[in-house]
Write a structure and sequence with these properties.
Largest sheet: 5 strands, antiparallel
Bound molecules: MYO-inositol-(1,3,4,5,6)-pentakisphosphate, adenosine-5'-diphosphate
Shape: globular
Pfam family, one: IPK
Region (Disordered): 22-48
Distance between the termini: 54 Å
CATH architecture of the largest domain: 2-Layer Sandwich
Catalytic activity: 1D-myo-inositol 1,3,4,6-tetrakisphosphate + ATP = 1D-myo-inositol 1,3,4,5,6-pentakisphosphate + ADP + H(+); 1D-myo-inositol 1,4,5-trisphosphate + 2 ATP = 1D-myo-inositol 1,3,4,5,6-pentakisphosphate + 2 ADP + 2 H(+)
CATH superfamily of the largest domain: Inositol polyphosphate kinase
Family: Belongs to the inositol phosphokinase (IPK) family.
CATH topology of the largest domain: D-amino Acid Aminotransferase, Chain A, domain 1
CATH class of the largest domain: Alpha Beta
GO cellular component, one term: nucleus
Order of helices and strands: HEEHHEEEHHEEHHHHEEEEH
Strand content: 15-25%
Length: 324
């Protein structure tokens, strides 16, 4: 089932119902047949967030290049859906920004789940941002020193504040929420969630170095830093393009959203050729209206992340020259 959410966002009337209808007509081709429960599985490369299990809802994939995120409880799920509806059709969002940095939204769909086999649940249908990567090395970095929208109820503010203070969010303007790194032999390094929560500044630097290292185990040779972080189309140039938009845009405030980094450990080489480096935004359950004000919370975290990554690139070994 593909359906529309009620307009939870106002967005100053930029998205008229007529505009939205015509957008849907142009951008939502008829959906492929609905996947059955046996087609669906939790994504192998998910590094953070709520995970699907026998008794819990979580994202699912079916290998078709789509990513199904269950609408979250309360008004949170509807809020995220309303964001996608509004963002997808917003005339003031540059198409290049929408296409390069956000998953494409294909509406919502009722899907059976293991947790609720008899009670199909609505899911956001998104592009799988890691589709096409054979051995994805992935990092989820939650941006912003503050992770709750200003309108949040007090107990939620207290819960988020404790997490923001207890992690590097307040200090650095971001925290690493999840990471997996595939070594050349295929071994996967994936620290526990709790370990990531306990990282201090030096620990964050270590993890960001480890993300672009080819040595197995805990070593950090940063052999892939030039290829993945630096160079044309690398993480840094993509983050800088994103930053340029955040220096201008006053439409949305992206509380608690994450930057998802991805590259193909099988395709990347220290020479900087290939690798399918991706920089994307995910998790819009707490986006607020920008009301004409810069998203300084996200922008500050983004600048801080850029500084960490550019320091790693400057200290890392040079990209070896290409063979003649
Ligand atoms: O539900 P919890 O307590 O596990 O917290 C979720 C977080 O897990 P954590 O415990 O920090 O590892 C979870 O954090 P990660 O994405 O795993 O870093 C999210 O922050 C989630 O918030 P939302 O999906 O953005 O609404 C968090 O959900 P809410 O706090 O928003 O309910
Ligand atoms: N469109 C997507 N394509 C591929 N992976 C995704 C996509 N969206 C999210 N993920 C994966 O799922 C994780 C959790 O997503 P998120 O939207 O943050 O869920 P939650 O709201 O439960 O925190 C991310 O860390 C990432 O690994």
């Amino acid at each position: 089932m593909i359906s529309r959410s009620p307009d939870l966002f106002n967005f100053r009337g930029v998205v008229s119902p007529r505009h939205l209808r015509s957008f849907h007509h142009r951008h939502h081709p008829p959906p492929p047949p609905a996947p059955t429960m046996s087609d669906l599985r939790p994504p192998e490369h998910q590094v953070a967030g709520h995970r699907a299990s026998a008794d819990k809802l979580g994202p699912l994939v079916d290998g078709s290049g789509l990513f199904y995120k269950p609408l979250q409880a309360g008004d949170r799920g509807e809020h995220e859906r309303a964001f996608y509806e509004a963002f997808s059709a917003h005339a003031a969002v540059p198409p290049r920004i929408r296409d390069a940095f956000f998953p494409r939204f294909h509406g919502t769909r009722l899907l059976p789940t293991q947790a609720r086999p008899r009670d199909p649940h609505p899911h956001l249908v998104l592009d799988d941002l890691l589709a096409g990567l054979r051995a994805p090395s992935v990092a989820d970095i939650k941006i912003g020193a503050i992770t709750w929208p200003p309108s949040s109820p007090e107990p939620y503010v207290a819960k988020c504040l404790a997490k923001d203070r207890g992690t590097t969010s307040v200090l650095l303007g971001f925290r690493v929420s999840g990471v997996r790194v595939v070594a050349p032999g295929g071994a996967v390094w994936r620290p526990e969630r709790q370990e990531l929560k306990e990282l201090d500044t030096a620990g964050v630097r270590r993890v960001l170095r480890r993300y672009v290292s080819s040595a197995p185990g805990e070593g950090a040779d940063c052999a892939l830093a030039a290829a993945v972080y630096g160079g044309e189309g690398g993480v840094l140039s993509q983050l800088r393009e994103l930053k340029a938009w955040f220096e201008e845009q006053t439409l949305f405030h992206f509380y608690s959203a994450s930057i998802l980094l991805g590259y193909d450990a099988n395709a990347v080489s220290a020479t900087g050729v290939g690798g399918g480096v991706r920089v994307k935004l995910v998790d819009f359950a707490h986006v607020a209206e920008g009301d004409g004000v810069i998203d300084h919370n996200f922008l500050g975290g983004l600048c801080s992340l850029i500084k960490f990554i550019s320091d790693i690139v400057s200290e890392a070994p040079e990209t070896p020259p290409l063979a003649p």
